[in-house]
Amino acid sequence: MSAFTLHPQLAADTLVVGDFPCCRLLLMNDAQYPWCILVPRIAGAKELHRLDDADQLQVLRESVALSRAMEQQFKPHKMNLAALGNMVPQLHLHHIARFRGDPAWPAPVWGKHPAQPYVQGLADERIQQLRHALPGLTPPD
Amino acid sequence: MSAFTLHPQLAADTLVVGDFPCCRLLLMNDAQYPWCILVPRIAGAKELHRLDDADQLQVLRESVALSRAMEQQFKPHKMNLAALGNMVPQLHLHHIARFRGDPAWPAPVWGKHPAQPYVQGLADERIQQLRHALPGLTPPD
Fold first, then answer.
1. Domain ranges for chain A
2. pLDDT (tens digit, 9 = 90+) per residue, B47-99?
3. How many CA atoms does the CB half-sphere of A126 hold within 13 Å?
4. Which of A54, A56, A101, B53 has its CA 20 to 30 A from that of A65?
5. B80 with A85: Cβ contact below 8 A
Protein backbone atom coordinates (compact mmCIF):
# COMPACT_ATOMS: atom_id res chain seq x y z
CA MET A 1 0.00 0.00 0.00
CA SER A 2 1.20 3.51 -0.74
CA ALA A 3 2.45 5.79 2.02
CA PHE A 4 0.13 8.01 4.02
CA THR A 5 -0.49 11.45 2.61
CA LEU A 6 -2.95 13.95 4.02
CA HIS A 7 -6.02 14.49 1.82
CA PRO A 8 -5.64 17.86 0.03
CA GLN A 9 -8.97 19.15 1.35
CA LEU A 10 -7.89 18.50 4.94
CA ALA A 11 -4.52 20.07 4.21
CA ALA A 12 -6.23 23.17 2.81
CA ASP A 13 -8.70 23.55 5.69
CA THR A 14 -6.38 23.04 8.67
CA LEU A 15 -3.16 23.92 10.45
CA VAL A 16 -0.84 21.15 11.65
CA VAL A 17 -0.39 20.80 15.41
CA GLY A 18 1.73 17.64 15.58
CA ASP A 19 1.75 13.85 15.48
CA PHE A 20 0.53 11.31 18.00
CA PRO A 21 1.97 7.79 17.55
CA CYS A 22 -0.89 6.95 15.17
CA CYS A 23 -2.73 10.14 14.21
CA ARG A 24 -1.84 13.55 12.86
CA LEU A 25 -3.45 16.32 14.91
CA LEU A 26 -4.83 19.24 12.92
CA LEU A 27 -6.51 22.49 13.97
CA MET A 28 -9.42 23.42 11.73
CA ASN A 29 -8.79 26.88 10.33
CA ASP A 30 -12.07 28.24 11.70
CA ALA A 31 -11.79 30.64 14.59
CA GLN A 32 -15.47 30.22 15.54
CA TYR A 33 -14.78 27.02 17.50
CA PRO A 34 -11.78 25.23 18.99
CA TRP A 35 -12.01 22.40 16.43
CA CYS A 36 -9.40 19.69 16.05
CA ILE A 37 -9.19 16.81 13.61
CA LEU A 38 -7.36 13.52 14.15
CA VAL A 39 -6.23 11.71 11.00
CA PRO A 40 -4.81 8.19 11.46
CA ARG A 41 -1.59 8.02 9.45
CA ILE A 42 -2.71 4.76 7.84
CA ALA A 43 -2.78 4.79 4.06
CA GLY A 44 -6.21 4.09 2.63
CA ALA A 45 -8.11 4.18 5.94
CA LYS A 46 -11.74 5.23 5.54
CA GLU A 47 -13.74 3.69 8.39
CA LEU A 48 -12.76 3.28 12.05
CA HIS A 49 -14.46 -0.12 12.24
CA ARG A 50 -12.29 -1.47 9.42
CA LEU A 51 -9.00 -0.75 11.19
CA ASP A 52 -7.42 -3.66 13.00
CA ASP A 53 -8.03 -3.94 16.74
CA ALA A 54 -4.69 -2.45 17.78
CA ASP A 55 -5.12 0.60 15.55
CA GLN A 56 -8.70 1.13 16.75
CA LEU A 57 -7.52 1.09 20.35
CA GLN A 58 -4.67 3.49 19.62
CA VAL A 59 -7.02 5.91 17.84
CA LEU A 60 -9.38 5.72 20.84
CA ARG A 61 -6.53 6.47 23.26
CA GLU A 62 -5.41 9.47 21.18
CA SER A 63 -8.99 10.70 20.81
CA VAL A 64 -9.53 10.51 24.57
CA ALA A 65 -6.24 12.32 25.24
CA LEU A 66 -7.22 15.05 22.78
CA SER A 67 -10.72 15.46 24.22
CA ARG A 68 -9.29 15.74 27.73
CA ALA A 69 -6.70 18.28 26.59
CA MET A 70 -9.32 20.38 24.79
CA GLU A 71 -11.60 20.26 27.81
CA GLN A 72 -8.75 21.34 30.06
CA GLN A 73 -7.56 24.14 27.81
CA PHE A 74 -10.82 25.52 26.41
CA LYS A 75 -13.37 24.70 29.17
CA PRO A 76 -16.27 23.93 26.80
CA HIS A 77 -19.78 23.05 27.86
CA LYS A 78 -19.68 19.95 25.66
CA MET A 79 -17.26 18.10 23.41
CA ASN A 80 -18.59 16.99 20.03
CA LEU A 81 -16.93 13.96 18.44
CA ALA A 82 -17.67 12.73 14.92
CA ALA A 83 -16.34 10.64 12.05
CA LEU A 84 -18.43 11.50 8.99
CA GLY A 85 -16.39 11.43 5.78
CA ASN A 86 -19.21 11.83 3.29
CA MET A 87 -17.22 14.43 1.38
CA VAL A 88 -13.59 13.73 2.35
CA PRO A 89 -13.16 9.94 2.32
CA GLN A 90 -9.89 9.82 4.29
CA LEU A 91 -10.69 8.70 7.84
CA HIS A 92 -10.72 11.73 10.12
CA LEU A 93 -12.27 12.38 13.52
CA HIS A 94 -13.66 15.78 14.43
CA HIS A 95 -13.24 16.98 18.03
CA ILE A 96 -15.05 20.26 18.60
CA ALA A 97 -15.23 22.24 21.85
CA ARG A 98 -18.77 23.61 22.00
CA PHE A 99 -20.08 26.51 24.02
CA ARG A 100 -23.58 27.68 24.75
CA GLY A 101 -23.74 30.79 22.60
CA ASP A 102 -21.23 29.69 19.96
CA PRO A 103 -22.44 30.48 16.42
CA ALA A 104 -24.06 27.08 15.80
CA TRP A 105 -25.15 26.10 19.34
CA PRO A 106 -26.94 23.73 20.00
CA ALA A 107 -26.84 22.42 16.41
CA PRO A 108 -23.86 20.51 15.03
CA VAL A 109 -21.32 22.85 13.41
CA TRP A 110 -21.35 21.44 9.89
CA GLY A 111 -23.08 23.52 7.25
CA LYS A 112 -24.13 26.25 9.64
CA HIS A 113 -21.69 29.08 9.02
CA PRO A 114 -18.78 29.54 6.60
CA ALA A 115 -15.39 29.08 8.23
CA GLN A 116 -13.79 32.23 9.60
CA PRO A 117 -10.05 31.69 9.12
CA TYR A 118 -7.85 32.56 12.06
CA VAL A 119 -5.86 35.70 12.27
CA GLN A 120 -2.36 34.47 12.98
CA GLY A 121 -2.10 35.25 16.69
CA LEU A 122 -5.11 33.28 17.90
CA ALA A 123 -4.23 30.20 15.84
CA ASP A 124 -0.73 30.17 17.30
CA GLU A 125 -2.17 30.57 20.77
CA ARG A 126 -4.52 27.61 20.35
CA ILE A 127 -1.77 25.45 18.84
CA GLN A 128 0.51 26.26 21.76
CA GLN A 129 -2.28 25.43 24.23
CA LEU A 130 -2.75 22.04 22.58
CA ARG A 131 0.99 21.29 22.48
CA HIS A 132 1.32 22.30 26.13
CA ALA A 133 -1.51 19.95 27.14
CA LEU A 134 -0.24 17.11 24.91
CA PRO A 135 3.50 16.94 25.55
CA GLY A 136 3.82 13.59 23.75
CA LEU A 137 3.09 15.16 20.37
CA THR A 138 5.99 15.14 17.93
CA PRO A 139 6.61 17.37 14.92
CA PRO A 140 5.04 15.86 11.80
CA ASP A 141 7.29 14.01 9.35
CA MET B 1 -24.98 6.86 42.10
CA SER B 2 -28.53 6.26 40.91
CA ALA B 3 -29.35 3.46 38.49
CA PHE B 4 -29.22 3.94 34.73
CA THR B 5 -32.42 5.15 33.12
CA LEU B 6 -32.76 6.10 29.47
CA HIS B 7 -33.20 9.84 28.88
CA PRO B 8 -36.89 10.50 28.06
CA GLN B 9 -36.02 12.24 24.77
CA LEU B 10 -34.07 9.19 23.58
CA ALA B 11 -36.90 6.93 24.77
CA ALA B 12 -39.41 9.01 22.79
CA ASP B 13 -37.36 9.13 19.58
CA THR B 14 -36.27 5.49 19.31
CA LEU B 15 -37.23 1.82 19.34
CA VAL B 16 -35.28 -0.61 21.53
CA VAL B 17 -33.25 -3.28 19.72
CA GLY B 18 -31.46 -4.92 22.67
CA ASP B 19 -28.55 -4.70 25.09
CA PHE B 20 -24.84 -5.19 24.55
CA PRO B 21 -22.84 -5.90 27.72
CA CYS B 22 -22.35 -2.14 28.22
CA CYS B 23 -24.68 -0.26 25.88
CA ARG B 24 -28.37 -0.26 25.03
CA LEU B 25 -28.90 -0.40 21.25
CA LEU B 26 -31.70 1.80 19.93
CA LEU B 27 -33.10 2.32 16.43
CA MET B 28 -33.93 5.96 15.70
CA ASN B 29 -37.56 6.18 14.70
CA ASP B 30 -36.75 7.83 11.38
CA ALA B 31 -37.28 5.72 8.29
CA GLN B 32 -35.13 8.00 6.13
CA TYR B 33 -31.88 6.39 7.29
CA PRO B 34 -30.80 3.20 9.05
CA TRP B 35 -29.81 5.10 12.21
CA CYS B 36 -28.82 3.42 15.45
CA ILE B 37 -27.87 4.89 18.80
CA LEU B 38 -25.69 3.27 21.46
CA VAL B 39 -26.28 4.42 25.04
CA PRO B 40 -23.81 3.18 27.67
CA ARG B 41 -25.86 1.92 30.61
CA ILE B 42 -23.72 3.93 33.03
CA ALA B 43 -25.64 6.32 35.25
CA GLY B 44 -24.58 9.93 34.77
CA ALA B 45 -22.29 9.35 31.76
CA LYS B 46 -22.00 12.42 29.51
CA GLU B 47 -18.62 12.26 27.75
CA LEU B 48 -16.80 9.24 26.32
CA HIS B 49 -13.43 10.60 27.46
CA ARG B 50 -14.60 10.72 31.08
CA LEU B 51 -15.44 7.01 31.25
CA ASP B 52 -12.82 4.77 32.79
CA ASP B 53 -10.47 2.93 30.43
CA ALA B 54 -12.31 -0.39 30.57
CA ASP B 55 -15.67 1.21 29.79
CA GLN B 56 -14.18 3.23 26.92
CA LEU B 57 -12.76 0.08 25.41
CA GLN B 58 -16.03 -1.80 25.80
CA VAL B 59 -17.99 1.03 24.16
CA LEU B 60 -15.46 1.02 21.29
CA ARG B 61 -15.83 -2.73 20.83
CA GLU B 62 -19.64 -2.46 20.77
CA SER B 63 -19.52 0.51 18.40
CA VAL B 64 -17.26 -1.39 16.01
CA ALA B 65 -19.52 -4.45 16.16
CA LEU B 66 -22.54 -2.28 15.43
CA SER B 67 -20.88 -0.45 12.53
CA ARG B 68 -19.82 -3.76 10.99
CA ALA B 69 -23.33 -5.20 11.41
CA MET B 70 -24.95 -2.12 9.85
CA GLU B 71 -22.48 -2.21 6.95
CA GLN B 72 -23.21 -5.89 6.39
CA GLN B 73 -26.99 -5.54 6.60
CA PHE B 74 -27.61 -2.18 4.92
CA LYS B 75 -24.64 -1.86 2.49
CA PRO B 76 -24.19 1.91 2.90
CA HIS B 77 -21.69 4.06 1.04
CA LYS B 78 -20.43 5.47 4.34
CA MET B 79 -21.00 5.05 8.05
CA ASN B 80 -21.37 8.24 10.08
CA LEU B 81 -20.40 8.07 13.75
CA ALA B 82 -20.97 10.88 16.24
CA ALA B 83 -21.26 11.72 19.92
CA LEU B 84 -22.74 15.22 20.16
CA GLY B 85 -25.06 15.61 23.16
CA ASN B 86 -25.63 19.36 22.96
CA MET B 87 -29.36 18.88 23.48
CA VAL B 88 -29.61 15.47 25.19
CA PRO B 89 -26.81 15.31 27.77
CA GLN B 90 -26.91 11.54 28.35
CA LEU B 91 -23.93 10.00 26.53
CA HIS B 92 -25.14 8.47 23.26
CA LEU B 93 -23.35 7.54 20.04
CA HIS B 94 -25.05 7.91 16.68
CA HIS B 95 -24.31 5.30 14.01
CA ILE B 96 -25.92 6.20 10.70
CA ALA B 97 -25.75 4.26 7.44
CA ARG B 98 -25.49 6.87 4.70
CA PHE B 99 -26.25 6.51 1.02
CA ARG B 100 -25.55 8.76 -1.92
CA GLY B 101 -29.01 10.06 -2.64
CA ASP B 102 -30.38 9.79 0.89
CA PRO B 103 -32.37 12.90 1.90
CA ALA B 104 -29.45 14.71 3.55
CA TRP B 105 -26.48 13.41 1.49
CA PRO B 106 -23.66 14.49 1.66
CA ALA B 107 -24.49 16.70 4.66
CA PRO B 108 -24.78 15.32 8.19
CA VAL B 109 -28.34 14.23 8.99
CA TRP B 110 -29.02 16.50 11.96
CA GLY B 111 -31.37 19.42 11.36
CA LYS B 112 -31.90 18.62 7.69
CA HIS B 113 -35.32 16.97 7.54
CA PRO B 114 -37.94 16.19 10.18
CA ALA B 115 -37.97 12.54 11.23
CA GLN B 116 -40.31 10.30 9.28
CA PRO B 117 -41.49 7.70 11.80
CA TYR B 118 -41.47 4.11 10.62
CA VAL B 119 -44.54 2.29 9.55
CA GLN B 120 -44.46 -0.82 11.69
CA GLY B 121 -43.31 -3.38 9.14
CA LEU B 122 -40.06 -1.70 8.11
CA ALA B 123 -39.00 -0.95 11.68
CA ASP B 124 -39.51 -4.61 12.61
CA GLU B 125 -37.53 -5.67 9.56
CA ARG B 126 -34.58 -3.43 10.45
CA ILE B 127 -34.66 -4.53 14.09
CA GLN B 128 -34.62 -8.17 13.01
CA GLN B 129 -31.71 -7.50 10.63
CA LEU B 130 -29.74 -5.97 13.48
CA ARG B 131 -30.53 -8.78 15.91
CA HIS B 132 -29.59 -11.35 13.28
CA ALA B 133 -26.22 -9.67 12.70
CA LEU B 134 -25.59 -9.15 16.43
CA PRO B 135 -26.47 -12.48 18.05
CA GLY B 136 -24.88 -11.47 21.37
CA LEU B 137 -27.57 -8.85 22.04
CA THR B 138 -29.83 -9.60 24.99
CA PRO B 139 -33.34 -8.30 25.71
CA PRO B 140 -33.19 -5.08 27.72
CA ASP B 141 -33.77 -5.26 31.47
1. 8-125
2. 999 999 999 999 999 999 999 999 999 999 999 999 999 999 999 999 999 99
3. 27
4. A101
5. yes
Using CA atoms, how far apart are residues B141 and B138, in angstroms rounded to an integer?
Answer: 9
- Backbone dihedral angles phi then psi of residue B17, each to the nearest 5 degrees: -100, -45
CATH of A8-125, one of 3.40.50.300, 3.40.1180.10, 3.30.450.40, 3.30.428.10: 3.30.428.10
- Spatial separation of the C-alpha atoms in residues B139 and B141, rounded to whole Å: 7
Cβ-proximal residues to B76 (8 Å cutoff; 6+ apart), any chain = B34, B70, B97, B98, B99
Of A89, A106, A111, the CB nearest to B86: A106
What is the ipTM score, two decimals?
0.96
Whether pTM exceeds 0.90: yes
Query: Cβ-count burial of A4 within 10 angstroms (0-12 exposed, 13-18 middle, 19+ buried)?
Result: middle
Q: Does B90 touch chain A (CB under 8 A)?
A: no
